[in-house]
Amino acid sequence: MPYEMSAVTEEKCWELLEEVKDPEMPVVSMVEMGMIHQVKVSDDMVTVEVLPTFVGCPALDMMKNDISNKLKGLAGVKEINVSFVYQPPWTSDRISNEGREKLKTLGIVTPPPQQDDTWQVACPYCDSPYTHVENLFGPAACRSILYCRHCKNPFEALKPIYE
Amino acid sequence: MVQFLQVDSAQKAQENPEYKAALTELLFQLADDDFILAYRGSEWLGLAPHIEEDVAFSSMSQDMMGHAVMHYELLDELGLGKADDLAQLRKPEEFRNVILAERKNGSGEYNDAPKYDWAYAIARHFVYGSIKQVKLEALRESSYQKLSFVSRKMLTEHRYHMMHWQVWMKQLANSTDDAKQKLEAALEKVWVDAGELFSYGKQAATIVGFGIVASEESLREKWYASMQQKFTEIGLNWPGDLGIPAESGRDGQHTPDLANALQTLSEVYVLDPQASW
Q1: Which candidate in A62, A130, B206, B254 could, as Cys together with B258 as Cys, close a disulfide (CB 3.0–4.6 Å)?
Q2: Confidence label for A1 from pLDDT (cuts 50, 70 and 90)
Q3: What are the chain A neighbours of B60 within 8 Å (beta carbons)?
């Protein structure tokens, strides 16, 4: 069966969504960020449920459009519904290991996969634990600004979000 | 134990007109409180005491604006109109926010000799935030499932705001005499208005009766207990009972400050409400 004729599958959608990047951290995909909750396909309609990290994030509308545009190219798709859902809430442990490694190359540290009362952050450049938080609030709603006293580099960290 | 009905969709809420009316009323209160105070926060842009604070304050105002959007969108689903229109096209008397949220940041205007009061900003956001905290905690158990979900989400973000305001409270209260005096004067100003935050307005009985949120009294009790302890920790004298302003924001009575704010914030939107952004 030629590709154009093949029915849309959820698997194919997930594959394409791997290519939709986080607009503010373009090294990671929304799938790696754990932001795609569900993909449902029924006949020629695709429904994607997205979990926002921070609700006031101005990139949310861009993400919605990027997802629609990416899936539009699929043969046999007539309608695409992208919606934000809040259950389950997005939490830091949803970021995949690949996502964590990629963010580190951008100089952005991810929170530990398990909730921890203290927020220990190792420098993404030299791995030193000798760091401090300069500002809980950073250039984007999801990030804080930190400084490494060992290698004297500023860096960023995603704020831990747990329920 | 009283079992409340569980309403898991906008459609179900609409099937019961009394429930819908109570829910709508509360959602406007929650949305308008956050929206108007976030606007006041945004007016600090470029004026905060130092650059890191400028980043922090704008980030928190952006979060709060996002929280208001979630509530306006819930209203949109209930058939009340587009979220953007609800925020920008209503008249002042249709707003349900408390007076505390609309008070100006100080004398002057944002683009005309602003003489803003930083101590008032800290005191107002700290007190507002601490009441928002107990309200969000109660809303986690709301009979309107969608409201319970968004409240849980907001709590994860709000936690960071509270950390921030507490640091400022502690620092101002324990630095120079001048700082402490300014903070105490600001708290006094906040105190006369803040009691209104516990009000659900005229529909309180139905709102609570339907289990949309816990009673005004239970929230007030919880807040007093935790707040008195915080004041001791910070090293501040307890100012006593909260007051209620002369105008009732929950009933749509507002000061001229709100009309001015709405005129400024919707100036661009009203030029062409159909424009796509």
Answers
A1: B254
A2: very low
A3: 137
